[in-house]
Sequence to fold (507 residues):
Amino acid sequence: MRLAILSLLVLVGLVAPVAAQQGGYTVIVNEANSVATLSAEEVSKIFFKKTHRWTNGQDVVPVDLPESAPAREAFSAAVHDKSVGAVRAFWQQQIFSGRAVPPVEKPSDEQVVAFVRATPGAIGYVSAGAPISAGVRRVQIVR
Amino acid sequence: MRNVLSTGFVLVTLALATPAAAQETKLQVHGYLTQAYGAAHGGTFLGIPEGGTADYRTAALQLRYTMTPNDQFVWQFSHRRLGTSPITVGEPELKVDWLFYSRQMGNLDLRVGRLPIPAGIYNEVRDVGVLLPLYRAPYDFYLEGAFTSETVDGLSAGYHLFADAPWNVEVSLFGGRYDMTNSNTSYDSVGTPIAHTPEVVNVDNALGTQLWLNTPVDGVRAGFGASRLDVQSGDFEGKWTEWHGSLDARTHWATLQAEYRRFAIPDVNYTAGYVYAGFHATPQLTLHGQMEFSDVVLTTAPGAPKFDYDRTKTIGVSYAFRSDLVMKGEYHATNGHWSDAPVSPIGYPLGKVSYFLVSFSTSF
Fold:
């Protein structure tokens, strides 16, 4: 019995954070983009600028929330499997080896939505439950 | 004047050193600064005297103009102080570090201008304190100021092979020319070595490659690189060839790195390597240990004698308040021929100089 409780606690401990993180953000694209689902790995490559184009040939334009945003923390953990600090360290490496710069940052969910709406190749994420207005679509993230 | 310029540069860098926030403007500004205090025991090593020095820093400002998402122009100028080292005598307070145009075409990245040389784990970022475990990249392997260059005036091409596969390869090729500072030993009238003398030489026909094999394990990769160059003047004039191998494993808890390289230059073979281990006790606190070596073989001397050129052991600790604000303390015990004083060329007793460095690094 004790073993079963212990196992349950371990299981809850392992599963709960993941569930909370996945619930912390919503990925969105411009409504002209036909993509409906993406894997976490695909999204990670997009935000690390390792994928440059959508399948239709259009340039991918990722947009981030600020590092202090809870949704960014959840997104980094769930999609990149890294902390926000580790992601920042990755971009420092890219910047100071002259290779690339991080995605554009927008200070709020509303501004991320506005940017994605105005940019055909854009992909962003917002806090779970943030209003998604016309001109953008949710993308389901599959594992 | 030098101090005014240095102080001004440091203050500007610090003033701009706010947490990085990606900008949407076409012109982006980034920079880094590492300021250190060091003191040595038993002699002087890389400009660190027994009396100590705070005239020890690296800094750079990088301007990046994005013309289109695939076309960028990058300009970086840098500043370096190495205490009392003769290597930096005559070096400008600010120098153009990089000046290149970059074009991205899918997985192909082309650059032309003055650009960083991809070589090993750290060559491209060897002055960026927030990215280095210790103050500098391992000296025996990467050297600093002498017998090495961080940049080439020419072009480079980078390509990511099998980019979507778990095992994938990043290939870089570069070619061009550069100036390199070598170091010679000066002797007095009775043949006693008295100083190291820098010697700027022209390097032509530099060609090289760097390959990284990324594994399915995130953070684990293996590298190989090679280069050849023509040194046009000075005591080491002639054709040089070089190759190196790298292992780089970074996990949440530990970082393990090892690199080995071999230079074949006229009359001399130089081999060097190091093993580094970092234990990340917390996300902020890392404990460091490193062992370096270098050997020299005088290939044209009778019997081609081999010399232990250097053996250095290092321990250190760093604390990252954020990933862009890091403090470090480190202790190095050297036993070899690299010390500024005593001047100990091959055939003379090894210099046993120990030194410590305390530094803080920031970037934006």
Summary: The radius of gyration of chain B is 20 Å. Helices of chain B lie at 2-16, 139-142.
